[in-house]
Every structure is written in C-alpha cells, then in structure tokens.
C-alpha cells in the first residue's frame, strides 16, 4: 500500500513539473478574451486602432503574443497600418482582351493571421506574352512580401517552397488588381501555386493552387 502511494505521489509530482515547464505554451488556452482586450506594450494612441481590427484577428494576435511577443507586435503594427493599394495598371488590364487562360486558382485563408481572397490567373496574351494576374485581390499585410510561383500546391513555409520557386518580385499591394509579367523562355508547367510570401517571418500569407 505504501509503495502504491509513493508511486502515485511521484506521478503527481512529475505531472506538476511538466505543467510548470510547459506553462507558457498552454496558459493562453485558458484565458478568456474580452471584446476590449488591449495589446500588451502597444502605444496608447494605437490601442483604439488595434481594437478596431476584426475580433478573430485580435484574438489570434493576442494568442501569438503569449509565445512570440516580438512577432505579434510587428504583425499588430502591420495590421493597424491599413491597406497598401496596388498601383492601377490599365495597360495590363486592357491587354487581357482575347487572352487565353492557362491556369487559375482562388487565394485562401490559411489561418486567422495569414489570409487572402481573390483569384490568381496566368494568361497568355495575343502576342504570346504571359502574365500572372491577381484580380479582386486582398490579403493580410506582411513584411518584405514577395510573389512566388511554387511547385508545391500548398506551401506554407520556406521549407515547403523548396529552392526552385520562381520569384516574381515584391507584392505591389495587399489590395487591388495587379500583374506580374513572366519570361517568355520560362517553363511554367511544373508550377502549381501562386504564393504571397512574407520573408520577414518566413511564412506564406496566402496561396492559390493553380489548375
């Protein structure tokens, strides 16, 4: 009986030690978020801007703050800075008359912090020029955001991108139609997704699987 009691006591001590060790990872799960939770450490004149963000985004940023405060702060500042509209490109838009659609796909919400909407399409124009076109596009903000073509249909990280993705340059804006011209000699047959990728945090913001 005494041996059994010692075994139970040791098991309880071990469970307590594990709980204390992993406390930062699980404590946020038991916290009840309210509609007026401020963002820790954010300047007072920015708190109203933070509280004006969608509730699901605020909760996700507060949860991220529990595990990575620096990243959460940077993402909160980007979120409250407002949209970055892409420059109007009438030349590319008018060139689509009579163009052939090669592949197309819808941008997706990956999670509460990484999301997008709209359509990515690769067009071949009448003169055989090819462009990647974002239409009705919006996405979350990010730092050092690039547009990639990738072979993986759903790359979420740099590891999934591999080392043979095609970099089309900086994202022109997280809101608005925009075009990226493709080299005539580039074989596009193996690329299966258009990716809006944040190099600052090494993560995809949104992905469109191309079919």
Topology:
Elements: H1 2-21, H2 23-26, H3 44-51, H4 55-67, H5 69-80, H6 90-94, E1 100-106, E2 116-124, E3 130-139, E4 145-150, H7 158-161, E5 166-170, E6 178-182, E7 193-198, E8 203-209
Antiparallel strand pairs: 1-2, 2-3, 3-6, 4-5, 4-7, 7-8
Quaternary status = single chain
CA gyration radius, whole angstroms: 23 Å
Question: How big a fraction of the residues is strand?
Answer: 25-35%
The secondary-structure class comes to: alpha+beta
Give the ordered list of helices and strands: HHHHHHEEEEHEEEE
**Uncertain parts:** none
**DSSP summary: helix tally:** 7
Strand sequence of the main sheet, in spatial order?
1-2-3-6
Structure description:
31% of the residues lie in helices and 26% in strands. The strands form two sheets. Strands 1-2-3-6 form a four-stranded antiparallel sheet, with no helix packed on it. It has a four-stranded antiparallel sheet with strand order 5-4-7-8, with no helix packed on it. With 211 residues, the protein is an alpha+beta fold. The radius of gyration is 23 Å and the shape is globular. The longest helix is centred in the N-terminal third of the chain and has 20 residues, at 2-21. The chain is built from seven helices and eight strands; from the N terminus they run ααααααββββαββββ. Strand 7 and strand 8 (203-209) form a beta hairpin. The N and C termini lie far apart (67 Å).
């Amino acid at each position: 009986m005494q041996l059994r009691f010692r075994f139970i006591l040791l098991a309880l001590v071990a469970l307590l030690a594990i709980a204390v060790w992993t406390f930062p990872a699980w404590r946020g799960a038991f916290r009840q978020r309210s509609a007026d939770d401020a963002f820790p450490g954010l300047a007072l004149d920015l708190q109203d801007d933070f509280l004006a963000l969608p509730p699901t985004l605020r909760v996700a940023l507060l949860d991220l703050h529990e595990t990575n405060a620096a990243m959460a702060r940077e993402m909160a500042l980007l979120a409250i800075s407002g949209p970055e509209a892409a420059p109007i490109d009438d030349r590319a838009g008018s060139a689509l008359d009579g163009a052939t659609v090669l592949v197309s796909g819808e941008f997706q919400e990956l999670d509460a912090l990484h999301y997008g909407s709209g359509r990515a399409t690769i067009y071949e124009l009448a003169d055989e020029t090819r462009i990647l076109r974002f239409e009705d596009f919006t996405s979350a903000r990010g730092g050092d955001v690039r547009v990639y073509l990738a072979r993986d249909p759903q790359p979420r990280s740099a590891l999934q991108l591999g080392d043979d993705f095609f970099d089309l340059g900086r994202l022109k804006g997280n809101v608005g139609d925009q075009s990226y011209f493709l080299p005539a000699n580039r074989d596009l047959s193996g690329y299966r997704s258009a990716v809006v990728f944040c190099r600052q945090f090494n993560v995809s913001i949104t992905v469109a699987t191309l079919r």
